[in-house]
Amino acid sequence: MEGNQVMVLDHPLIQHKLTLIRDKGTGPKEFRELIEEVALLMAYEVTRDLRLEDVEVETPVGPARCRTIAGKKLAVVPILRAGLGMVDGILKLIPTAKVGHIGIYRDPVTLKAVDYYCKLPEDIEERVIILVDPMLATGVSAAAAIDFLKEKGAGNIKLVCLIAAPEGLEVITENHPDVEIYVAAIDHCLNEHAYIVPGLGDAGDRLYGTK
Question: Known catalytic residue: 110?
Answer without folding.
Answer: yes
